[in-house]
Amino acid sequence: MNTVAAKVQQGGGAEGQAAEEWRRPDGRAADELRPLRLEVGVLENAEGSAYGEQGRGKILVAVYGPTEVHPRHMEHVDRLTMLCRYHMAPFSTEERRRPQPTRRDIELSKVIREALEAAVLTERFPRSMLKIFIEVLEAAGGTRCLGITLASLALANAGIPMRDLVVGCAAGKYKGRIVLDLSEEEDKEGEADMAVAIMPSLNRIVLLQMDGELTREEFFQALDLAIEGCRRIHKMQVEAIKRKLQEGLALTPPTEEKE
Amino acid sequence: MSLTPVLPRINKLREQEIRTALRQGIRIDGRGFDEYRSIQVTTGVVSQAEGSANALIGGTRVMAGVKIGLATPYSDQPNMGVLIVNAEFVPLASPTFEPGPPDENAIELARVIDRGIRSSKVILLEEYAPLPGKRVYVFFIDIYVLDHLGNLLDTAALASIAALYTAKIPKVEVVGDEVSLNRSVTESIRTSALPITVTVAKVFDHLLVDPNLEEELLAEARIAITTTERDTICAVQKMGSGAFTRQEIEECVELAFKCRPKIEEALRLAIGHA
Predict the structure, then answer these.
(1) Alpha carbon of B8: minimum distance to chain A alpha carbons (Å)
(2) Which of A204, A209, A220 is nearest residue B245 as measured by Cβ atoms?
(3) B-chain residues within 8 Å CB-CB of A101?
(4) Rounded CA gap, A2 and A235, in Å?
(5) B232 close contact with A: CB closer than 8 A
(6) Residues of chain A with C-beta less than 8 angstroms from the C-beta of B230
(7) pTM of this structure
(8) pLDDT tens digit string along A183-229?
(9) Which domains are present in chain B?
(10) Could you give all domains of chain A from N- to C-terminal order, each with its CATH number?
């Protein structure tokens, strides 16, 4: 498990190198991920939390609940009400963003909520509410995917029962080639961008968004590459959870994670 | 911020009826799984707008209007005209629509249509920058939902494309650093694609194109796939809190290309492009 994670950290592995000499602006091969670091249980107040870095990107996610439903009319008698907020810090981009949610933030909050709802056992929590807060501290491309990856870690950390973890990864087309995990630069200049999130053990696609222009063949090439990227990141997710659990065993009584 | 919506419930007996019918290969309104409701597009429905259209898919009715003006370009795209797509889910269209600013569904719909238009280059925006960096064309597409009986996205996409294709674009007059629009002299749009959006709903593990309202409410998930006449895909959006398999995505893409000709025919009839 450790060797796989280490290999991914260095990026992609040797296959990509042997296949072609072509390099991307940041020196990566076409099927190589940016360096990725995932950490579980980083906040004191939240029931569950996770932090991640992908290239320059930095995202923090917190989960609160289950609690009573507010506002009351959003209560479901037979399932959980999920609240999801994807938000970018004003200082996260080159130009300052206004702190109010943008139309993009609102759309992403919706698709991320829907992706996570596919995994959470929502029927276990009638008349209850779960809040997921995704704060992008520094944006560097692929933030919705990293946001989802971290949100499912935070849900696991909060002890919310799920069918599977959810893991996200982007792919796209840059200078005529299908590439994995686009950087901000590649996203801006590229011909197409695809965001994918899957439940890796159940083999289900829970988020799929694409824009740009792709032939049918390129579309499925990009989809398969993104799924492959998700699978590599999933291994690191599992490692991150294990690290947190082991740390818990060493430092605190087994039943008590925090005060 | 996004919250799990509280949606109207389908009666259990009705649900059972729909499920049983699907198992026998029949949809509740008698259609085949890959069959659209009747499609009708009319253009030039609002004379004050530079372009306008009404689209009907079955009973779902959406109007779109295009207004054109001049504006300062975005700083990161100084050589391009500006495109702004907005959608209003007006309360007269459905008991579930509330008055007020666009909600997440309206925003998502507008953004998916925006991406389809932008990605496929329906308007060659780079040709609409008379004074790059200073003064460029701005195209507003305003989508007005009038009656919601399922599959708003495909209907709204049709109305938007029809309104855009038939828009009468006023010519610019450049005098030194001054740019103005001469609304008495117009030309037709400079374009390079005719995108068509096809939505497929996954209902009890069956893939159904053009879901009606009941099918939409029962659907585990939906996927909207926008294709061009170049045999390419230019926008995809998965919606709803369920999941698809890789195999199902493949089938949905096939359905999007399969359904395209019939929709394209209705659209071309309305915009007068053979």
Answers:
(1) 12
(2) A204
(3) 1
(4) 9
(5) yes
(6) 213
(7) 0.93
(8) 999 999 999 999 999 999 999 999 999 999 999 999 999 999 999 99
(9) 12-271 (3.30.230.70)
(10) 28-251 (3.30.230.70)
